[in-house]
Amino acid sequence: MLVSMNADREFVAEKDAQILELEKRILALKKSISALRAAKHVPQKRLDAYKYPILTLPNEIISEIFLHFLPPYPNPPPFVGRRSPFLLTHICHRWREIAITTPTLWRAIDLTVWRPRLDLAALTALYVERARGCPLAFDTTELNEISSALISYRSRWEHIKLHHSSYSNWRLMFAGPMPRLRSLHILRLPSASDSSLVSFTLEHAPLLRNINMPIPDATRLPKLPWRQLTSLTLQSVRLHQLVSILQQSPDLIELRCYIHFQSNFPTSLSDIPPLHRLTSLSLDYAFNPQDRDLLSFFTVPALETLEVPESLLGYDTIESIKRFIAKSCCQITELRVKQADLLASSYKKEIPSIPSIVCVRR
Hints:
Blueprint lengths: L1 H48 L3 H4 L2 H11 L15 H4 L4 H8 L7 E4 L8 H11 L5 E5 L6 H5 L5 E6 L4 H7 L9 E4 L7 H4 L12 E4 L17 E8 H9 L6 E7 L19 E6 L19 E5 L7 H12 L5 E7 L3 H7 L5 E6 L1
Protein name: F-box domain-containing protein
Keywords: Coiled coil
């Protein structure tokens, strides 16, 4: 027993010595830590006083930078993901608050790409809510899921681009006033009879100036505010329809037409009125017009830019352009001849008054 007690005393003494040694080391480490903390105090104080340049900018400047992160309005950014305004809300708390409270970041909505597991109606409502009172631009393929969210804000629509929609939703969309609407782009009309399509009306859009759409092959034209338009793109139009539209659109500045030709030119082409404000004219066609001089029916004294297929200039293309310029008394600065057999040098030699001439060969 005495031997056992002596062994225990030796063991305890050994451990006490080890503990004492460790305590001395801990004390030395604490002193080292205190010295390190004292050494870093001054530079840390300088760092705490430093502000990154981006964080010194006022919120208004950061909001403006955010706007340049997105495509120019009214082109919409991606609905979600990279390049969407949602990305700006994931950087830091301050940027999130700035992005959420900048209405112009949320005024353009891209609904053209369908994504499963996304509640489009809820996200659309969130965009509209964050846009506050801003006018809205949207680009959409299908309206079934989000029609109610958009239609309830019809009074704020400014720029609309429709790829396709069912006719019932399409009619419902335009059933009320649109006091802020400025441009309407319809890529494809819904499947419906001609008689139902021409009942489409946009008579309650006083600011509408730009329309881009196909015209249904019907005896009557859609009831659109032709007279107030300044920019018109007709993706598909018959010549007799074009005449009727131009008679109702005296203030056009830009006109682009993709024409479906009948077997013969209608005699009503002579009824195309002078377009005194038109500065840009672009013509194209779907079927061979048999080298008829369509340009001769236009009188456009303010025209500056002309784009036309060579086959729409008649048999003597250069003389056709000369007669057209003389008739309109216009000063064309840019001529683009599509599907051309002649070289640009031939046009430049005969019409030196036009500074820029481009010929796109067949």
